Amino acid sequence: MRRLLSATETLAALSLLLIALLTAGNVALRYAFSMQIPDWFDGARMLQGIALFWGIALATYYGSHIAVDLVWEHLGPAGRRWIDLVATTVTLAFLVPLAWMVWVKVGGTGTQGTMDLRLPLQWFYSAAAVGACVAAVLAMVRLWQLWHGRAADPGDGAAGSGPGGVHGS
Q1: Fewer CB in 10 Å around end: N or C, the chain?
Q2: Is 153 inside a domain boundary?
Q3: Is residue 105 part of a domain?
Q4: How many helices (H) and strands (E) does the chain have?
Q5: What are 24-82's pLDDT values in tens digits?
Q6: What is the crossing angle of helices 2-33 and 121-147, to 10°?
Q7: Domain limits at 98?
Q8: What is the pTM of this model?
């Protein structure tokens, strides 16, 4: 599990790094030499989609997405666990069809490519689709862990932090 989480974090971070390098490199070339990197905009846009799906996978697993815990904070451990179970189930119910539809999109891209270099969009969409599938799988893992009284904590870097899960801070 740690390897999957580490790979997911690495892919999301690399996508963001590549976006930053691509954008900064293009700005530097444009101002210094009045030229630009071919497909910099399409590349940054596709990398942003990849980073988004892989980031959703991490946020879902750790339960660290934006939440208003007005009710959750006032409940005991059992009530918190049930809210986390319901929330994760709803999240999973959305992620599974989302992952499916992203793969449908991959299948429908055909020979579409980027504007300048004609790089196949299917490569980028496939990387995003794998991220969507990882998000669904990690939601299932989180649901199983919550059901068994364990939840991942983004602060400890390992699964199974015990009752209380991620909202305990």
Answers
A1: C
A2: no
A3: yes
A4: 4, 0
A5: 999 999 999 999 999 999 999 999 999 999 999 999 999 887 776 788 888 898 888 89
A6: 140
A7: 2-147
A8: 0.81
